[in-house]
Design goal:
The chain has 159 residues and is of the alpha/beta class. The protein has a single domain, classed as 3-Layer(aba) Sandwich (Rossmann fold), CATH 3.40.50. Helix content is 22%, strand content 33%. The chain is built from 4 helices and 9 strands. The strands form 2 sheets. A 6-stranded mixed sheet has the order 2-1-3-4-6-5, with helices on both faces. It has a 3-stranded antiparallel sheet with strand order 7-8-9, with no helix packed on it. The longest helix is centred in the first third of the chain and has 10 residues.
């Protein structure tokens, strides 16, 4: 949780609404970010409206493709998904950056990757703290049913 706190403070992230998934956000962190916070235990219990939250803080144990997609749904455009996961090493189970990218690539831009200051010294318990911003899905103003270009996070595709 300290890594998340440092990331939030370094980004000067403020929020009107936040959702904590699989963890409890400390009161001092809530006070720093401001706004109204909701907490749920399981990543599959997102019973909220689309675009309701500006920040989702997720436990690393809850991170998977389904939970990232649900977080995307409940986030406002430009909202942030924050999480800390164990980093895979030869002696530790966890995620690589490639694993994380494959989970969040379709709906988010990874804006910050932080490692603890002691990471380079080879101590155990290495973690990755990730901040991913929700991608916006926009359609070109001159939209026509045939031959229009759709701007998506992936590429320009003819419809």
């Amino acid at each position: 949780m300290n890594e998340l706190r440092e990331l939030i403070q370094s980004m000067k992230l403020r929020s009107r609404t936040g959702l904590a998934v699989g963890l409890s956000v400390p009161e001092d962190m809530k006070a720093y970010m401001g706004g109204e916070w909701r907490e749920i235990r399981a990543a599959d219990a997102f019973q909220y409206q689309d675009g309701q939250f500006s920040v989702v803080v997720m436990a690393g144990t809850a991170l998977n493709a389904k939970s990232a997609k649900e977080a995307h749904r409940v986030l406002k455009d430009g909202g942030y998904l924050l999480f800390t996961v164990p980093e895979r090493t030869s002696s530790q189970f966890g995620f690589t950056l490639a694993d994380i990218y494959s989970i969040v690539r379709e709906g988010y831009n990874i804006t910050v990757v932080k490692r603890p200051a002691w990471w380079r010294f080879g101590r155990g318990g290495k973690t990755l703290t990730i901040c991913a911003q929700k991608k916006s899905w926009k359609v070109y103003k001159g939209f026509k049913r045939e031959g229009a270009f759709c701007l998506s996070p992936f590429h320009n595709a003819k419809i």
